[in-house]
Amino acid sequence: MNFFRQDLLARLRHKFLLAPAGYGRPLDQTVVDGEYRSGAWAHFGQLPELPRQSIIVGYVTQLYQNPAILDLGCGSGRLAQLFQPHPFRRYLGVDLSVEGIRLARELKLTRCEFTEGNFETWSPPEKFDVIMFSECIGYAHDPGALVARFLPSLAPGGMIVISHFRFGYWPAHWRRVEAQIKTFAATTIANERGQIWDIKLLRPTSSS
């Protein structure tokens, strides 16, 4: 009974205190694996998602000739697929889901590596020109703290790219992120279903 009471209190605390302040809700690995197996995340490879994904690819390829890219929350590797026609020297995708990483590896994409890891605790082995968070900062305990912990992994002149769906407390998520790093370019895009995303490019200030 105490367990259920504590769980209820934790849920209420998140709903009424943490979520409005911009904190996210981390996902359990087994839940995400089950969603990949059921096809719940297959929509990332479908046409309604392509406009915002194309914006990400376009931003990166416009600003960097041959970047090293870190894709956090890479899922089944959809963005890596879209980068294939473009020059890049390194692409590392990281995701909590064993099933998502399995699907990404099955794509057998050139110049791409995929590894299992929880972005709350996993640390990069090197520095990257571009670090991407595509539709995943809402699953971080603290989106701002998550982005901040990866700033030391940016190469000189590097940038953070975030794509975030407008759902729930999305403005509060952005406030936490932009307290840590500044936006220098942004696009808002909607598809035919009325779904809306913000795609932002962010760089550390000189004092970061």
Describe the structure.
The protein is α/β, with parallel strands linked by helices and 208 residues long. The chain has a single domain, classed as Vaccinia Virus protein VP39 (Rossmann fold), CATH 3.40.50.150. It is 35% helix and 25% strand. The chain contains seven helices and seven strands, in the order H-H-H-E-H-E-H-E-E-H-E-H-E-E. It has a seven-stranded mixed sheet with strand order 3-2-1-4-5-7-6, with helices on both faces. The longest helix has 17 residues, at 2-18.
Q: In terms of topology, how is this protein built?
A:
Blueprint: H1 2-18, H2 29-38, H3 50-63, E1 68-72, H4 78-83, E2 90-95, H5 98-106, E3 112-116, E4 128-134, H6 143-150, E5 154-165, H7 170-178, E6 182-190, E7 196-203
Parallel strand pairs: 1-2, 1-4, 2-3, 4-5
Antiparallel strand pairs: 5-7, 6-7
Nutshell version of this structure?
Helices cover 35% and strands 25% of the residues. It contains 7 helices and 7 strands; from the N terminus they run H-H-H-E-H-E-H-E-E-H-E-H-E-E.
